[in-house]
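Hi all, posting the design record for the shared folder.

TITLE: backbone redesign
STEP: 1 of 1
STRUCTURE INPUT:
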């Protein structure tokens, strides 16, 4: 028997694709290739209000993470509480309080759980990627736009993890294939 492990984000994407294949609607997720870095990038909407963010596609990663160090603002951001369902789904490795910033902010909350954030371009990992949920929208015209009001992702506060990203890229969308 062969088993496959898929992150929740990939499973949801497959389910949505199956729904759209059975309907007349089409979900387009444009992928671009950065000319200088040769990295593949997608653009999604995130936060409230929705803003476009660019994400590096990583075919061997574990989760979607975004940079929260440069003023992540959203009225719907919610950190995952320790031992919550969100922490279990994300396979959290630790719980705790923020000790990195003088005040609580997205990516630095108290009584929250963490996973490993990774940047495959520099072969680097960060053990304090805060699990959170916020709005995520994918798709473009022509086609449909799908929005998840409580999408689980991780929030990093380490500028070193942004090294070697294409210009404007603020995180990673990972798929285990």
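Okay, here is what came back for every position:
SEQUENCE:
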């Amino acid at each position: 028997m062969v088993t496959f492990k898929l992150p929740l984000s990939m499973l949801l994407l497959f389910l949505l694709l199956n729904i759209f294949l059975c309907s007349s609607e089409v979900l387009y997720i444009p992928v671009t290739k950065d000319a200088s870095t040769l990295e593949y990038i997608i653009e999604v909407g995130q936060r409230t209000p929705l803003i476009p963010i660019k994400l590096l596609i990583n075919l061997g990663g574990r989760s979607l993470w975004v940079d929260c160090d440069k003023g992540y603002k959203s009225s719907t951001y919610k950190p995952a509480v320790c031992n919550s369902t969100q922490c279990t789904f994300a396979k959290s490795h630790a719980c705790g309080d923020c000790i990195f910033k003088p005040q609580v902010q997205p990516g630095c909350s108290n009584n929250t759980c963490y996973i490993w954030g990774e940047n495959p371009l520099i072969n680097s990992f960060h053990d304090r990627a805060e699990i959170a949920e916020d709005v995520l929208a994918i798709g473009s015209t022509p086609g449909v736009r799908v929005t998840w009001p409580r999408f689980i992702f991780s929030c990093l506060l380490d500028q070193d993890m942004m090294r070697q990203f294409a210009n404007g890229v603020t995180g990673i969308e990972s798929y285990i294939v």
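COMMENT: The radius of gyration is 16 Å.
Let me know if anyone wants the other runs.
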